[in-house]
């Protein structure tokens, strides 16, 4: 007699679920019949010239203004970045790093 003889089989049951409600349902695959129906429908539309134009999405005044402002800000950002050369940016970074306190310095605590 093995140690595994009296182990219950089946999947785990989660709390709050009852019976078959925990089972995951598989999605049904599309059949070839559906594809054929779509193809014939598309051919009928083309043959009948009943193709309707796609609705064009127009933007509101607020959306247009928002995009203009965003573009303007992006342009300003690019201009600001283009003013400094790489050498100047590196020098500025080094200056900032020199001003910062070292993170590994031991702070003085207590008397003396």
TrEMBL record:
Annotated stretches, region: Disordered: 1-36
InterPro entries referenced in this protein's UniProt entry, alphabetically: FAM32A (IPR013865)
Keyword match Coiled coil: yes
Entry GO CC: nucleolus
Source taxon at top rank: Eukaryota
Coiled-coil boundaries: 57-103
Keywords in alphabetical order: Coiled coil
Name the record gives this protein: 6664_t:CDS:1
Native source species: Acaulospora morrowiae
Taxonomy of the source species: Eukaryota, Fungi, Fungi incertae sedis, Mucoromycota, Glomeromycotina
């Amino acid at each position: 007699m093995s140690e595994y003889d009296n182990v219950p089989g089946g999947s785990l049951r989660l709390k709050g679920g009852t019976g078959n409600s925990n089972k995951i349902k598989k999605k049904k695959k599309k059949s070839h019949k559906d594809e054929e129906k779509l193809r014939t429908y598309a051919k009928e539309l083309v043959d009948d010239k009943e193709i309707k134009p796609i609705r064009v999405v127009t933007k509101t005044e607020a959306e247009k203004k928002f995009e203009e402002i965003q573009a303007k800000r992006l342009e300003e950002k690019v201009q600001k970045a283009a003013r400094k050369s790489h050498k100047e940016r590196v020098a500025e970074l080094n200056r900032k790093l020199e001003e910062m306190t070292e993170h590994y310095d031991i702070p003085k605590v207590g008397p003396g």
